[in-house]
Amino acid sequence: MITGMHHAAMRTNEFDKAVKFYEEGLGLKACFKSGEGDKRMILFPVGESFIEIFADGEEKTHGAVEHFALSSTDIDNDFKRAINAGATEKRAPVDIIISGSGSLTNELNLRIAFIISPTGEMIELFMTR
Predict the structure, then answer these.
(1) For 101-117, what is each residue's pLDDT tens digit?
(2) What pTM value is reported for the model?
(3) Any idea of the CA torsion for 68, 37, 48, 108, to the nearest 10 degrees?
(4) How far apart are CA 69 and CA 124, in angstroms?
């Protein structure tokens, strides 16, 4: 039984740039670091989940991951901080309502934004209203 997301993992050949962005641009604090050089890894807690970054010196593509979403309590400030730290705007913060279909007739009232980090991954900032 799936009960939640444990972590999202990524590999980058720009490890220091990625770590700086996740610390300064998103305000995350590492809880675990390991290795040296291209064997480095770092783990950032995000609520009950984690973001894991590996430095292996080469870009790798695994599957068809579109983006990952980070819950936010203040998307506008988180978005500005990320942009100021080198992220690129993909979609500025916007309020949206998504209606359920079929037997799921509830609505989702959301505020979302999308950024591209300095190392290329797309990140959604996500807040239910």
Answers:
(1) 566 657 778 899 999 99
(2) 0.77
(3) -10
(4) 4
